[in-house]
Design goal:
Elements: H1 2-17, H2 26-32, H3 38-54, H4 59-64, H5 67-74, H6 79-94, H7 101-116, H8 121-137, H9 139-147, H10 150-165, H11 178-194, H12 205-214, H13 217-232, H14 238-326, H15 332-338, E1 349-350, E2 355-356, E3 363-367, E4 373-377, E5 384-391, E6 395-403, E7 412-416, E8 436-439, E9 442-446, E10 451-456, E11 459-466, E12 472-477, E13 480-489, E14 501-504
Parallel strand pairs: 11-14
Antiparallel strand pairs: 1-13, 2-5, 3-4, 4-13, 5-12, 6-9, 6-13, 7-8, 7-12, 9-10, 10-11
Helix pairs in contact: 1-2, 1-3, 2-3, 3-6, 5-6, 7-8, 7-9, 8-9, 8-11, 10-11, 11-13, 12-13
């Protein structure tokens, strides 16, 4: 404690005795301004003010010794200490080389605003006039007042009396004089007549409306002028502006809601269309399945029908096979009917025509005139069939006419009586060639000689079949043919011809 007292005494002596200070003295001054003793504090503040004004290079030492923070704590101290602290702070601020002109302009207007609020009417009016003239001359000052809170400060001052009157205890010294309000309105009026971008002043409209109705004459007149000018510029009160903004927001919200409803409606329509499309596709698919099912059913029916037909054919074939096995393709009495003895009573006589039908489903056998027979092949395939008549003696003649031939192929010939011709037989393929011979034309079978002679257009051919010593049948492959006659002749029409060639019949 004793050491602190000694140090304070030294600082006091230092502060009162020294007239010139530099940066080396600032630490002692920083300590001195914290002293509760005004005799130490006030001289030290004055020395610091002198340093920041006259020796700006020492301002860095002011920051280093935390003098700015100490000055902030003195702003609400004694009147003289507050003034000196403000002065030092303003100088430091001006020495800070602020780039923004609007911010610098505020530093210039702040003292004038302080003067306008002076309770000394003469000083207040001078401050109002000075600031009004500055507003008229300097655009930066106008911009600074409009953008750095001047309107809020004016509103505070104009409404202060109402706030004071609402308190239970107040003195006449608390009431702000009318000349201060008038001075501020003069500055506002000058702003309205010279500046642009007046929207920040809209917050004054409600209090100006109130002053126009209830204020003193001078306040009333200035309020009317300001309101008229603001209205001409389209500036509305903040509440009106708020209402406009609310209406705008509501309108935008309504538009947004309508758009959302329209979007939702379109989405529902799209969803409905999609459902209809899916339903149509489903119905189409269903119809397609039904069609396929019907086609499959038809195909199955046709297949079953075909299977039945094939079964029927197989049954017929089986019957034929059974007949082949038992050698009863035709009943024996009927065969005997067509087998003729070698006596002379049957010479020059037509014999009835009948065939062994090995493919009833394809071969149609019909009568023409009681003698001639017509054979029609229903399907386009190869068939070979034989006559029922067994040739075993005498001379026989068969005359046939072919029509609608398959690739021009048709022939007549003879086949072993013991050989059963199957369905779809082709006489020129094995094993059929081992049991039959075929010729396209007229045949003459001479059982007396055992020869088969061929005629084309009535002319005997040199090639003939010899050594036939067994029972045979005449057979006929073709598409459509008419068997005109089957005769047993009294004599032969064949004879020996030049260059004739005999082909021996198959040996058993």
């Amino acid at each position: 404690m004793e050491e602190e007292s000694v140090r304070a005494s030294k600082v006091t002596s230092f502060a009162t005795e020294q007239n010139n200070f530099d940066a080396t003295n600032i630490p002692q001054l920083a300590f001195a301004i914290k002293s509760p003793d005004k005799n130490i504090q006030i001289p030290s503040l004055k020395h610091i003010l002198d340093i920041v004004v006259n020796k700006p290079e020492s301002i860095e030492a002011v920051y280093e010794n935390d003098i700015v923070n100490i000055l902030n704590k003195l702003l609400n101290d004694s009147k003289e200490g507050e003034i000196l602290s403000n002065a030092i702070m303003n100088v430091i601020g001006l020495r800070s080389e602020v780039v923004d002109a609007v911010v610098r302009a505020r530093a210039a207007t702040e003292p004038l605003i302080q003067i306008i609020h002076s309770p000394n009417e003469k000083q207040s009016k001078q401050g109002s006039k000075a600031l009004s003239d500055l507003v008229a001359d300097n655009e930066t000052i106008r911009s600074s007042l409009l953008t750095t809170g001047f309107a809020e400060l004016v509103l505070h001052t104009l409404t202060s009396n109402n706030q004071i009157q609402s308190k239970s205890s107040s003195s006449s010294s608390d009431i702000i004089p009318i000349f201060i309000k008038v001075g501020l309105l003069d500055v506002v009026l000058r702003l309205v007549t010279t500046a642009e971008g007046l929207q920040p002043l809209a917050l004054l409209i409600p209090i100006l409306e109130d002053l126009k109705q209830k204020g003193e004459n001078e306040l009333k007149n200035k309020s009317k002028k300001i309101l008229t000018l603001l209205q001409s510029e389209g500036i509305n009160s903040s509440s009106s502006q708020q209402n406009d903004e609310d209406l705008k927001k509501e309108k935008e919200q309504n538009i947004r809601l309508r758009e959302e409803l329209e979007k939702e409606k379109k989405e529902k329509e799209k969803e409905k269309s999609e459902k209809e499309r899916i339903s149509k596709e489903f119905q189409k698919e269903k119809n397609e399945k039904e069609r396929i099912t019907e086609e499959l059913q038809i195909e199955r029916n046709e297949k079953e029908k075909k299977n039945e037909e094939n079964k029927k054919i197989r049954d017929e074939i089986e019957k034929i096979k059974q007949k082949e096995k038992s050698k009863v393709e035709i009943s024996k009495p009927n065969i005997e009917k067509y087998q003729q003895p070698s006596n002379s009573s049957q010479v020059n006589k037509d014999f009835p025509i009948a065939i062994i039908n090995n493919d009833p489903s394809n071969i149609e056998f019909t009568d023409i005139d009681g003698v001639q027979k017509k054979i029609v092949q229903k399907n386009r395939k190869m068939n070979t069939f034989s006559l029922v008549q067994v040739l075993e003696s005498g001379i026989w003649q068969l005359e046939v006419v072919f029509e609608k031939l398959i690739d021009g192929r048709a022939a007549i010939g003879i086949v072993r009586d013991s050989y059963v011709i199957p369905a779809d037989a082709y006489p020129y393929f094995n094993p059929h060639t081992q049991n039959m011979v075929a010729f396209t034309g007229k045949l003459e079978m001479n059982y007396e000689k055992g020869t088969l002679t061929f005629f084309i257009d009535g002319e005997q051919q040199p090639v003939y079949i010899s050594a036939i010593r067994e029972k045979i049948h005449m057979y006929n492959p073709g598409s459509t043919c008419i068997i005109r006659s089957l005769k047993k002749l009294s004599g032969t029409a064949s004879c020996h011809v030049a260059k004739e060639k005999a082909i021996q019949w198959f040996s058993n």
